[in-house]
Amino acid sequence: MSVDSYRNTLARLNKEKSKLQEDSVKISERINKICSDINRITRSITKNTSLSSRNSKQRQIETKQKEITRLQKNYAAIQTKIAKKIEDITRATKNLNRALEIYTKKKRTEEINHLRVVSKEKEKQLAMQKELSRNPLTIRMEELPEKIKVLFLASNPKGSTPLSLDEEIRSIKKKIKESEYRDSVEIISEWAVRPLDILQAINEHNPTIIHFSGHGAQSSDLVLSGNTGEAKLVSPEAITQTMKTTSESMKLVVFNSCFSSGQAESVVQHIDLAIGMNKPIGDLAAIVFASQFYSSLGFGHSILKSFEQAKAALMLEGTGEEGTPELFYGEHIDPNGIYLVKG
Fold first, then answer.
1. Domain of 168?
2. Residue 342 in domain
3. Which of helix, strand or coil describes residue 273?
4. Hey, how many other C-beta atoms are within 10 angstroms of the C-beta on 94?
5. Which residues form a coiled coil (predicted)?
6. What is the DSSP code string of 141-164?
7. pTM of the predicted protein model
8. How far apart are CA 35 and CA 125, in angstroms?
9. Distance between CA atoms of 226 and 88, rounded to whole angstroms?
10. Count of H helices and E strands in the chain?
11. How far is Cα 311 from Cα 248, in angstroms, rounded to an integer?
12. How far apart are CA 198 and CA 317, in angstroms?
């Protein structure tokens, strides 16, 4: 169970205990009231009270005493339930504290792992800067193609959590249309993508960018559609081999799916640059990141600047997921010197 589930259970048990205590108080007040009635009736019996009246009053007293006996049994039963609730609350509190401890340790481990990734990335960037200082890479804008193609490959298999993939491509297209060099970016979409569809789409469209949108597994596998629409896992090795066979026009692969940083890191053996997610990413964050990234490219910015602006968009939107996307690039590649759109 999650921390929230334990919290909800504890809140429910405390509410039930409070209700039992309220019932217990009401019964106790009722017993006290009946006892007062018995005392009042008893005091009303005097030497001058007629025999018939005395018998009537005695019957009233007996009836009320029976009512007290019944209420006392109910009171005892409620006290037993309250004691049981207290035991349940104690157990639920222990479960919650244990879950909080596990959650805290998990978050701390994630933070440490993230810091390690950031440190590794900084080391790579420093090494790259040193290499570039010895072998500067110059990009001539006149050599850029007149138009780049973005191949949007979407898959949301049967049985998986529904994703707003149509909203993602709609936002990307809108942002591209609003960019300065909108005529330089063409976006092509393929839906319900199966593994073999990838090679077909690459050969058919010869894209500059491949954008995978959908689910990812913790094993770094992509989740595509099988022959009957069911989920089918595709390993990083398979995607890397596929990228190895692509044309020289391919410059960037974007994995806009959960746990895809392993895929991205693997493909830069053969492709200049790749973007992946180091943990789960929400629907809104995926849409905001992708649409801003392509918008920045459409304004003629470099890969690195477009990536940083997309992360800034996540911060402006307040998603709290700006640390999720990661940019990977091959040896001797300076992402700040790579432009895909001719300005």
1. 143-337
2. no
3. strand
4. 11
5. 3-30, 54-106
6. GGGS-S-EEEEEEEE--BTSPP--
7. 0.59
8. 85
9. 47
10. 8, 8
11. 28
12. 32
Which CATH number does the domain housing residue 179 bear?
3.40.50.1460
Look up residue 296 and give its two tokens: 């920045």
> Is residue 114 a part of any domain in this protein?
no
Return the pLDDT at 133: 58
Number of domains in the chain: 2
Task: Please indicate, yes or no, whether residues 180 and 329 belong to a single structural domain of this protein.
Answer: yes
CA distance 328 to 267: 9
Query: Is position 124 within any domain?
Result: no
50 and 159, same domain (yes or no): no
190 DSSP β-pair partners:
153
Length of the chain: 343
CATH for 51: 1.10.287
- Chain segment 131-143, per-residue pLDDT in tens: 655 554 444 444 5
What amino acid occupies position 284?
Answer: L
d(CA 261, CA 282): 15
In this structure, is the dihedral angle defined by the CA atoms of residues 256, 260, 261 and 267, taken in order, positive or negative?
Answer: negative
Residue 123 lies in a domain: no
pLDDT one-digit tens code per residue, 144-161: 557 899 999 999 998 888
Say which residues have a Cβ less than 8 Å from residue 295's Cβ, sequence separation at least 6: 175, 176, 178, 179, 309
Please tell me the distance from the alpha carbon of residue 104 to that of residue 92, in angstroms, as a whole number: 18
Ramachandran quadrant class, 247 (left: phi over 0; alpha: psi -120 to 50; beta: rest): beta
The distance from CA 117 to its chain's CA centroid, rounded to whole angstroms, is: 20
Tell me the CA end-to-end span of the chain in Å, nearest whole number.
53
Q: How far apart are CA 340 and CA 342, in angstroms?
A: 7
